[in-house]
Each structure stands twice: as C-alpha cells, then as structure tokens.
Amino acid sequence: MAIELQDISYTYMPGTPYERKALKHVTLSIEEGGFVAIAGHTGSGKSTLLQHLNGLLTPTSGQVLVDGVNLSPKGKAEKAKALAARRSVGMVFQYAEHQLFEETIFEDIAFGLRNFGCDEAEVDERVRTSMALVHLDFETYRDRSPFQLSGGQMRRVALAGVLALQPKYLVLDEPTAGLDPKGRKDLLATIGELHRKEGTTIIFVSHNMDDIFQLADTVVVMRQGEMLLSGSPAEVFPQTETIAKAGLRPPQLMTLLTRIQEAGVPLTADDLLSRTPEQAARAIERALKSTQNQKGRRGNDAQ
Amino acid sequence: MLNNITIGQYFPGNSVLHRLDPRTKIAVLFFLIIAIFVFDQPVAYLVLTLLTFGCMVVSRVPMKTQIGSLKPLWWIILFTFLIHLFSADGRPLFHIWILTATWEGLVRGFFICLRLALLLLLSSLLTFTTSPLKLTDALEAILSSLKSIGVPAHELAMMMTIALRFVPTLIEETDKIMKAQQSRGADFLTGSILHRLKNVVPILVPLFISAFRRADELAMAMEARCYRGGIGRTQMKELRFAPLDYVAWGATAVLMVALTAVAILFPKGFL
Fold this sequence. Notes:
The structure holds 2 protein chains of 2 kinds. By secondary structure, chain A is an alpha/beta fold. In chain A, 46% of the residues lie in helices and 20% in strands. Chain B folds into 2 domains: 1-130 and 241-271, no CATH class; 151-237, no CATH class. Chain B has helices spanning 16-19, 22-38, 42-58, 63-68, 74-87, 103-129, 132-143, 153-183, 193-198, 201-224, 243-265; strands spanning 92-96, 99-102. Chain B has a two-stranded antiparallel ribbon with strand order 1-2. In chain B, a hairpin with a 2-residue loop joins strand 1 (92-96) and strand 2.
C-alpha cells in the first residue's frame, strides 16, 4: 500500500455559518505504480481530497499515510519523517502556470530544488532531465521568460518544476483544463510516458471521462464529499446510472458502442469497454463480419 | 491556512436588524453615534447601553463574535482608561510612583471607555447584519444626493463593489499560490525576517499577474456589455423603505428628542 486515506473527513470554516463539509469519511488506498483518476462534479470534494495527499490540508478526522508514515503526526520525531513523506508526493495544481514567477524558465524549475537544498551541479542536472521529460529543449528555453510562452508550454514548465523534485507520486488537479486540443493531447501523452517509463504513480483529477477511460487503471467517483464508486474502468463505467447520479456521463466511445449494439450489431460486453478508437473499430469489424457470415450461412441453408 | 477569513464580517440571518433597509441602518447608526458623543448624563449612558445590548441580542449574531469585535481596540481602550485615571484632578484614590489616581478619573475613564465600546459594538452590528453589497447600495443612495456638487457616487460605489467582490477571489488565489509554492518546498513561516520577506516574492509575483489579468478581463467584459457608468442605470433589487424602517426612524427620533430634553432639563443629571 503506497498512499492510504483512512476514514478522512474535512470541514471548511468549522463553527461559522459558512461551514461546509467537503469530505465525509473517505477511505481509499492507492497502490504504488498505479494510475488513478478521480472524477466528480464541481464541488464534489475532488480538489480537497488531492490536497490531503501531500499534507497541504490536515483532515478534520481520520489520517493519511504515505508509505506507512502519518502525514500529520503529533510527536516531534515523527514530524521530520512526515516532511520527507510529503516531499515524495509532487503536486501540480489546476492552472499550474499561475504559479510561475521567476525571470527565466531555468530559475523557475530550479525553485523547488533550491528550497530542498540541492547543490548547483545537481540543480543543473535535474532541471535538464525534467525539461527533457516535458519535451522542452533545454538550450532554447533555459534563459527565456516563462511569461513569453504559450499556455500549454507554461503548464509544461510548471509541471517540470514539480518533476525536478523527482516525486515518487505525482498528483495533478485537472492537468488539461483550458488547454487547446493539441496542448491537451501532448500533456496527456507526457503524463502517460512518466507513468510507463519512470514508474511514477499518477493520481489525477479530471472532468473528462474519455481521458480517464483511456489512461487510468483505477477510477474513483466522488459525489458531495463521499466516495461513490471505485474500481477499474471496466468495473466502474458500466454502472451508468450511478455515474449519472454523480453528474457525470460515461465515455463517448462507450456510449457510441452501446448505441451500435442497440442497433443490432452483436458486440460483446468486452467490446463495449474498448479503450481506443482503433480497438473499437476492430471490435465492430469483427461483429459485422460474424453477422454477415451468419446471413451467408442462412442464405446457403435456404437454397 | 487562509480559509478562516470571513469576508467583511457579514453574518447571514433573518433578524429584525437584518431586514431593515441598509440606508435606515446607516442613518440610525449616524444619529446614535452623535448621541453617544453629545449626551454625557449617566441616564443617557444607561439608555444607550441598554439599547446597544438590546440590538446585539435581537441581531442573533453570536455574542462571542460581537464582543470579539472589541479585540483590535483592547489596548487603546485600556490606555485611554489609564490616562483618565491618572490625569484627572480630584479626590486621590491611590499613588503609584509619581502618579496619582483619582475617583473622578476612575469615573471619567469608565465612561469614556464605555463610549468607545458602544461605538465599536454599534458599528460592528451594522457590518454584521448588512451584506457588503447592500452596504454599497446604501452608500450609493446616500452619496447620490451629493451628485450635484460633483461627487461621482455611482463610480465610487462601483469601485467598492468590485473591490469587495474580488476580496474572496484574491484570497482564494493567494491560498492556491501559497500551496503550490509550498509543494515546491517554499517555507513562509520560519526563518529570519529577511528570509521570510524574500519568500513572499514567489507569492506576490503570480498574485499581481493574476490580479491584472482579472482586472483586464473584467474591464473587457464590462465594455462588451456597454457599461458607461451610472447614467440611466436601474437596479434589479431597488432599496425600498418598509413599515419596519418607519418604526426605526420614529424610535430614533423619539430617543433623540427625549435625550435632548433630559440634557436641557437636567443639565447636572438626576441619578
């Protein structure tokens, strides 16, 4: 078990008329090497949940364990341990480009490293690697101002700033919000690569069921601060009614395949869960061929 | 970290005080403040104190919060009291070093502090029971009588509304930026003052950028909707006086007249 949330609840502004229970008794464990998506309607507590993962918020009740270390311990000796555990969780906020502030891209990415006390050689080395990870050319971009870049590029710089810290777990809050289709495709590809090649555990929040369906191996559906569903996409998405209750819709590909099935093409339950358009196309082709064969055979029988 | 800040200090509710027209509340507060300053007979203090506490109970805002509004001025109140205690002439009470406390000083200090406390409690009551939006509406209504001498009432009110509207947004933004930089190891809470000041830069720069971006977007959106200031502008929720307001006006008038009468008839007080 890598990250464990044990029965956590969180209340904003307790004791005032603005009191709001954002999380209610959420228990969740995230395996190392997993690719976890958290889905839910606006105000369902997704972002609050994320901020518990690296100790930015301390649960009102319950506890968060990262690699077995409690993130908000009472004793002094355990606090140092908790700090190290927090640092193993990298956090990329929504509209991460809004956190940029330095004069050059190099300095902005190096900000976290300097805070963590790395020496210059290591800073240089790690900035290079993390820029490579997000596909920004080191020589071209190192001395540019981050504010001259496009929105998609700025977000890459912000992502690199977190990756430079070499987090074991990477938490992203709606990483693709507000990006153009190309920026979004590139960014998702980058995140996929991180997961595959670097073995980073990814936890991300998204509104987009299609992205979740394609990338994630575990889906968590939130509704009004409670965990409604969790499991693999194949377990979660066929429960269309529950998903609709959370204010979400099933992935478009699945809806399309369901319609095709309803129109009389004999697709199997597995076919309905095709993750990519290519997979879906093959499934439809197979199904159509089998019907044609059957028709052909019936035709032969009639003669 | 920043999520415990309440905006202004409005306390939503439906008490008599909440339902009063904001213009009435401002006017009544104005007259009560005058009364507190002008009338210094014990009986006037008694009436005004009872009235203030009556209003505090009626507002149904938790007493602890209301008394808490005195906190920022605690030291000033204490200081005022001590100055009066030791500076007035009269029968000596006790000596400390070269200072002499007097009975007269004790009494005067007590009443001055009571005045300060009443002023604070009453003004807080206005902001506790009136939403910032209603407050600016009322200010605009009151200021618009000064339009003829060139006071830009609408523009002032609009600026105030926008400023108030963006306070929570900017607080949220600051909170987010602080958290983002904290996730990158920034530390705002420990170290020397110089170190901490240096650490404010990663918050301020993104905050300024976002504030300017928002201002730009807002200006654009207002222009796109043909905003051209207050001329001929109507309101969705117009302020209207209800019977309750006339009661409040009447009661204030009666109170003022009564206090004036007491002041003239019994200049020395009768308690």
